[in-house]
Design a protein that fits this description.
The structure is a single chain. By secondary structure, the protein is α+β, with helices and mostly antiparallel strands. The protein folds into 2 domains: 401 residues, Up-down Bundle (Na+/H+ antiporter like fold), CATH 1.20.1530; 78 residues, Regulator of K+ conductance, C-terminal domain (Alpha-Beta Plaits, 2-Layer Sandwich). It is 64% helix and 7% strand. It contains 21 helices and 9 strands. The strands form 3 sheets. Strands 7-6-8-5-9 form a 5-stranded antiparallel beta sheet, with no helix packed on it.
């Protein structure tokens, strides 16, 4: 097998990215989650071509990727959307995770001796905890790729749950790894509860603070290069995660809340920033899933006992543990119909997060760490295959789907639009016929869309009075006539968009 070295790193990385992008295109046509095929690319190259065995590096890259994914997911979520589902979403992200972990952990503990892999209850609970949270990367990616419209505010509920439930699972995993690791001292239950509260409170506060700081900085810094705003915000993402972790807060929760704050505030060059993070999010998702696929040992994965435990665990979690946890967590919230609750229980996708959490036992040499990693991997593949491919179909079957209206004026419109935008400064010659908008002589099929005066923007009407120095945003499909007219008016500095 080929070893990954500094000399061939870029070549191998480029090939993997290229193949993954092509796989994503195939996945879209087949109706299969692209993330599943990204994993497949990693598994294939890891089994046939490349030699990669670094749980530490995979864990590190996973944290970076999750920080960006969670921030981007938060930035795309509107407060107005999640406000009606805030309480049920938080309940699912906390109580739901704990219920899933203990129900599934008890099942694994009971069934493991029958499958020839007898596990202690702490190990079984650790295995269950790694899979207790739904995966934000998978949920965000699948719902938005499929453009699935949902009734009863289900989409913001699912995105809120998946974006905020990682901290509880993370704390459970870290606690159990600490207890089981031969190299670490056991932590008491009381200290664990205190740790949980501290991490959640500090994470939420730090996320809100850094989000506000990012908004203030971006709006005040006044950089000449618009692309640098995206770079600055990316620095804030890493700063938020690392600082919050340093002060014993939960970094994953912090970056998600910071994303929520930034996304719901006005910032300069927001469209550029959103486009940048959309691209970076896809890049880190591809890298993360490929690395996770490379890390898996196919021979260990296909051992009968491991394979059987993984399949049985996946089926029990999908059809028993997740539905029971959801139904109990959502019991106080009567506004959701039975079909809506059933759909929430179904869209409990597992993806990269459980596999990344499963690297923690590997790094700390916890007993049965290889088994935990491989079982989680099997469960993830089954979840993406079974649930990921039926997101739309199940919504239609349960009657909670609605047609999501797509904008007719998106990127495709901009590419096909023959009209052009121009910006000009009003001069005295332009106002010679009169100082109102309707008195300005402009070619036919030409509209003044907006006026900027002393930093204030407004939409003009025919009787709007203009002054020298006003900046006009003009739309026209008679561009040659308009340019000739500009020259007649002595307008030399014309900005084209």
């Amino acid at each position: 097998m080929m070893e990954i070295t500094t000399e061939n790193f870029l070549l191998i990385g480029a090939i993997l990215l290229f193949v993954a992008v092509l796989a994503g295109k195939v996945a879209y046509r087949l109706g299969t989650p692209a993330l599943l095929l990204f994993l497949g690319v990693g598994i294939f190259f890891g089994y046939e071509i490349l030699s990669f065995n670094s749980p530490e590096l995979t864990q590190f890259m996973g944290m970076i990727a999750l920080s960006i994914i969670l921030f981007s997911g938060g930035m795309d979520t509107k407060f107005s959307d999640i406000k009606p589902v805030l309480l049920p979403g938080i309940t699912l992200a906390t109580v739901g995770v704990l219920l899933t972990a203990f129900i599934l952990g008890g099942f694994i503990y009971g069934i493991s001796p029958w499958l020839g892999v007898g596990l202690s209850f702490p190990v079984a609970l650790l295995l269950a905890s790694t899979m207790a949270s739904t995966d934000s990367a998978s949920v965000f990616s699948i719902l938005r790729t499929k453009k699935q419209g949902l009734n009863e505010n289900l989409r913001p509920l699912l995105e809120l749950e998946s974006g905020s439930n990682d901290p509880v699972a993370y704390i459970l995993v870290v606690l159990l790894v600490t207890i089981l690791s031969p190299n670490k001292q056991e932590a008491g239950i009381g200290m664990s509860i205190i740790l949980f509260i501290v991490q959640m409170v500090v994470g939420a506060a730090a996320g809100y603070g850094f989000g506000k700081a990012a908004v203030w900085t971006i709006n005040k810094i006044n950089m000449t290069n618009a692309s640098l705003y995206s770079v600055l915000l990316l620095a804030f993402v890493f700063l938020t995660f690392s600082f919050t972790t340093l002060v014993q807060g939960n970094g994953f929760l912090a970056v998600y809340i910071a994303g929520l704050v930034v996304g719901n505030c006005k910032i300069v060059h927001k469209r550029t920033v959103v486009t940048f993070f959309d691209g970076v999010t896809w890049l880190v998702q591809i890298i993360m899933f490929i690395m996770l696929g490379l890390l898996v040992d196919v021979k260990l994965l296909m051992e009968p006992s491991t394979l059987l435990l993984g399949v049985v665990t996946a089926l029990f979690m999908t059809f028993v543990a997740r539905p029971v946890a959801v139904l109990l967590s959502m019991a106080p919230f009567r506004k959701f119909s039975k079909k809506a609750r059933m759909y929430v229980s179904w869209v409990g996708l597992r993806g990269a997060v459980p596999i990344i959490f499963a690297t923690y036992p590997l790094v700390d040499q916890v007993p049965h760490a290889d088994l935990i990693f491989n079982v989680v991997f099997i469960v993830t593949i089954m979840s993406l295959t079974l649930q990921g491919t039926t997101v739309s179909g199940m919504a239609n079957s349960l009657g909670v789907a609605r047609k999501e209206r797509e904008s007719s004026f998106g990127d495709a419109f901009q590419d096909r639009m023959k009209s052009e935008f121009t910006e000009v400064d009003v001069n005295e010659l332009m106002l010679a016929p009169g100082n109102t908008l309707k008195q300005i002589d402009l070619p036919q099929h030409t509209l003044v869309i907006m006026v900027c005066r002393d930093g204030d923007y407004f939409v003009p009407q025919g009787d709007t009075e203009l002054v020298v120095g006003d900046k006009l945003l003009i739309l026209s499909d008679r561009n040659e006539e308009l340019q000739a007219h500009y020259k007649e008016l002595g307008l030399e500095e014309v900005i084209k968009f």
